Amino acid sequence: MSPILEVKNLRTVFKTESGNVTAVDGVSYHVNEQEIVGVVGESGSGKSVTQLSVMQLIPNPPGRIEGGEAWFEGKNLLEYERNGKEMRAVRGAKISMIFQEPMTSLNPVLTIGQQLMETLQLHKGMSTAQAHKRAIELLAMVGIPAPESRVNDYPHQFSGGMRQRAMIAMGLSCEPRLIIADEPTTALDVTTQAVLLELMRNLVRRLNTSLLLVTHNLGVVARYCDRVYVMYAGRIVEEGPTREIFANPRHPYTVGLLKSMPRLDQPRQHRLLPIEGLPPNLVNLPPHCAFLPRCPYGTELCSTSPAPGLAAVGAQHAAACHLNIEESRT
Amino acid sequence: MSKSVLTGAMEAPPRVTEWQRFRRVFFGRKIVVFGTAIIGLLVFAAIFAPWLAPYDPVKISLTERLQGPSWAHWLGTDNYGRDTLSRLIYGARTSLFVGLTSVGLASVVGMVLGGMAAYYGGWFGATVMRVMDALMALPVVVLALVVAALLGGGLWNVIFALSVSQVPEYARLMAGQVRSVKENDYITAVRSLGAKDSRIMFGHLFPNSFAPLIVQFTLQVGSTILGEAILSFLGIGITPPTAAWGAMISNARDYLLQQPIMSIVPGLAIMLTVFAFNMVGDGLRDALDPRLRGRL
C-alpha cells in the first residue's frame, strides 16, 4: 500500500486581534490507498483546519498556510495557486470533502439535482441530460427513496439525514481518490449516524476510495478506522493503528480521551474521568508540551524541555511525550 | 438497513410549491392586490397608449385651451389645448419607462459592483465601497440634479442621472448580502467541489442575495418615478412636448387657480403610482421572507 496523500510539516496561522494563532503546527500525516484514517481531537485542536489547509480552502485573510507540503499524485498541492486551475481540478474530482453541517452545506436556492449536476458537468464534462441521469443514480446509490422525483427537491424539503446523504452523493459523484469527511455525522441523531457511516464505509470500499474521517467520536474511530491520528493544540500527539492505540495508548492525552469515554464492559457505577482543565489558548502556546497543564504525569523534565516531537513507541506507533507511560486500560 | 425503514422515516409532507406559497402570502393582503392592479393598469396604459388615448398627446389646439372636464375631453385640456387624458396615458409610458430602466440599470451595476467588492474584498473592495459611500452622502435628487444639469435634459439623460444616483444603494445592499452569504458552509462546499470564482459568485452567491434587492427594486421604481417628476417639474427632466407627469404639473402650476384639475390629475397619477409600487414592494418583502420558507 502506498500513500495517496502525504502531508509534511503543515503549518497554518490565523491572524487575529489578540495575536497570531498557530492552528496547525507542523502536522505530518499520510493516507494510504483504500484506507480509512481517523483524525481525532477536541474542538479547536486544528483537525478541521488541517483538512481545509490541504485543500487550500482556508479563508485568507485571516488564515495563511505558512509552510509544509501536501503530496498528492506526485504533485505538491500547496504549490498550486489558491483558486487556480490546477487546484480546482483536484477539488471535487480527485479529493472531495463532506462537511459537518448538512443543514447549511447545500445551497438553499438550487435543487439537489442542480447541485449534483454542477459538479458532474464541471469535472466530467457531462451533458445536462447525462448529468441528470447520473444524479438520479447517485441519489439512489446513497439510499434516497424515489430519486427520480427527489432530484428536483430543494434542500429544505430534505431531512438532515437525507441532506447528508445528498452531500455524500456529491462527494462521491466524480469518484475521487480520497474523501475527506469532516465530522460528517456530528449534527445528526445517533441512529442516522450509524446508518450513514455504514453507508460511507460500504461506498468507499466499493469505489476503491480512501477516506479520511475527522471526528471527535472515539467509538466511530474504533469501528471504522484502520489508523488514527490524535491531535492536540494544532499538533499530532499520537499516531498508530486503531487497535494498537486503543489497547496501548502512549500519550497522556489519548489516555485521557479513552478514560472519558463510556464503555459497555465497565461496571455501571464506574465514573467517567474527564480531562481536567481546558485546551490551551493557541495564541500563546508555551514552549514546552502544550498538554502539560492538564497532564497528570507531568514532571520537571516536561516543563523545562521544549515540546516533544513524535517518537516511535512501537511498529507504526508513535507518540509525542517525554515520558514512557504504560497505562493499561482500566 | 431495510428499505421499509428508510421510506417510512422519510415520508415527505404534502407539497406546497414555492410559487403557491408565494402567491398565498402576496395576494393575502387586499392593499397589495390593489397596488398590483394599479401597476397592471399602468403597464396596460403604457403599452397600448396609441390605441387608448383619444387624442394625439402633443397636438396643440389653441381654440380649446384650459377647458374643464367635458364629454369631448374627459379630464379637460391644458394651456395649449392638449387633451389631459391623452397626455396622462402617454405620461404613464414615460414614467414607467424611466422608472424601470433607471432602476434596472442602477441595480445591475450596483449589484455587480457591490457583489464583487464584497466577494474579493481587499483594496479593490475597499475602494469601490468608499466611492459608493461618498456618492451616498449626496441626496439622490441633488445628485440627479447635478448630472442632469451637466448633461442637459432629455429622456436618456434623466435615466442616466437617476441611475447614477441610485447605484450606491444597490451596491451597499448587495455587498452586505454577499458578505453574509459568503460565510455560509455551502459556499465553502461548492468551492471544495472545484467551482471557480465566477460560478460561485453568479451561480451561488448572487441568487442567495437577491431577495431583499427585489423588494428594494420595487420600492425604488416608485421613488424613481417621483424623481423623474421632480426633475421634469424643475425643468431639467423630460423636455416638452413629450408627455411626462412631472412636466405636466410644472406646466399646470401657472394655472392652479384657473384650472386646478390640470395639476390635480397628474399629481394623483404620481401619487397612486408611487403608492402602488410601495404596496407591491411591501407585499414582496413579506412573500419573500425566508423565515416563511417551507411553512404554510
Q: Structural class, from helix and strand content of chain B?
A: mainly alpha
Question: Any idea how many domains of chain B?
Answer: 1
Low-confidence stretches of chain A: none
What's the β-strand tally of chain A? 12
Number of strands of chain B: 0
CATH fold group of chain B: MetI-like fold
Give me the Rg of chain A, rounded. Answer: 21 Å
Q: What proportion strand of chain A?
A: 15-25%
| CATH homologous superfamily classification of chain B | MetI-like
Question: Kindly state the mean pLDDT of chain B as a whole number?
Answer: 81
The DSSP helix count of chain B reads: 13
Tell me the helix content of chain B: over 70%
What is the overall number of helices of chain A? Answer: 11
**What's the story with the biggest beta sheet of chain B?**
none
| Largest protein interface, residues of each chain | A-B, 40 and 30 residues
Straight-line N-to-C gap of chain A: 35 Å
Radius of gyration of chain B (Å): 24 Å
**Major sheet: arrangement of strands of chain A:** 6-7-8-3-9-10-12-11
What top-tier CATH class of chain B fits best? Mainly Alpha
Order of helices and strands of chain B: HHHHHHHHHHHHH
Summarize the entry for a quick read.
With 330 residues, chain A is of the alpha/beta class.
Features:
heterodimer, A: 330 residues, alpha/beta, eight-stranded mixed sheet, four-stranded antiparallel sheet, 11 helices, 12 strands, 24% strand, B: 296 residues, mainly alpha, MetI-like fold, 13 helices, disordered N terminus
Draw up the topology in text.
The complex is a heterodimer of chains A (330) and B (296).
Chain A: E1 3-16, E2 19-32, E3 36-40, H1 47-54, E4 63-72, E5 75-76, H2 85-90, E6 95-98, H3 112-124, H4 128-141, H5 147-150, H6 160-172, E7 178-182, H7 190-206, E8 210-215, H8 218-224, E9 227-232, E10 235-241, H9 242-247, H10 252-259, H11 300-304, E11 311-314, E12 317-319
Parallel strand pairs in A: 3-8, 3-9, 6-7, 7-8
Antiparallel strand pairs in A: 1-2, 1-4, 4-5, 9-10, 10-12, 11-12
Chain B: H1 3-9, H2 18-26, H3 30-47, H4 49-52, H5 84-120, H6 122-136, H7 140-151, H8 155-181, H9 185-192, H10 197-209, H11 211-233, H12 245-252, H13 261-287
Helix pairs in contact in B: 2-13, 3-5, 3-13, 5-6, 5-8, 5-11, 6-8, 7-8, 8-10, 8-11, 11-12, 11-13, 12-13
